[in-house]
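so my prof wants the structure for this chain in the tokens format not the other one, which i didnt know existed until like an hour ago. anyway here's the sequence
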Amino acid sequence: MLYALMRRLARIALRWYYRDVEILGADRVPADTPLLIVANHPNAMVDPMLVATSVSRRVTFTGKATLFENPFLRAFLGAVGVVPLRRASDERARRQAGGAPDPKRNEDAFRAVSAALERKGAVLVFPEGKSHDEPSIAPLKTGTARMALQARAGGVRELSILPIGFVFENKSQPRTRILVEVGEPIALDDWAGAGAADAVDLLTAEIERRLRAVTMNFETAAAAAETARVSALLAPGGAGALGSGVRWAEVVALARRVDSARRVLERAVAAGGELA
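here's what i got, hopefully its the right format
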């Protein structure tokens, strides 16, 4: 009941603040099998709201353990079933004492995630570890891969890891648009690297590859701005078309092609090549 209410309120809030939330690939969401959802994290509390309103299944959320230090937040987060994750950067006392983070700090959280997956539930994880304003996704933490492999080792079958990417037109500006793109899931039972000695690193790299495919990633903010400028000129209607009636998904697809061409040209110049 509380989850349904929060989901309804989230949908109202998103519709009030943003002009449009476009969803691509919703048919890729498995209907009734264990699901580990991985998403980029550019916009703090908006990101879990987007997952909750874009995925028809009930989702178990994970959140940084420091949020649970507030007694009111702790009561609310516990009521909606948020699983606290303690990041290495949260181990303040150990850092101040010069020690390494406790590798067992998330044992209870991992058990809670495995239990949810055993019930064929859907669990959301932000593998970057924190929300940020960088023009590219941050290097992924290994926790997501370790959760998935631990659940599989514990007997969970038909587990899928589903990448979901968010591309904001301007996350802080009202009446702008968002693209929520569901990527190709990883069927863990069929994943070839499950038995490898470095399975955690291999799976983390595969998750990052698939997450990059549904997000926008630039080396610098300047590169992102230049791609947006060129895309606006090439979009139907010419300059300024980014804010026009052109679907945001079409604009993002065009920006990806522009960025791909830019990278090819930069590599050619760096290699001393000539343009035909």
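also thought this was worth mentioning. The longest strand covers residues 160-168.
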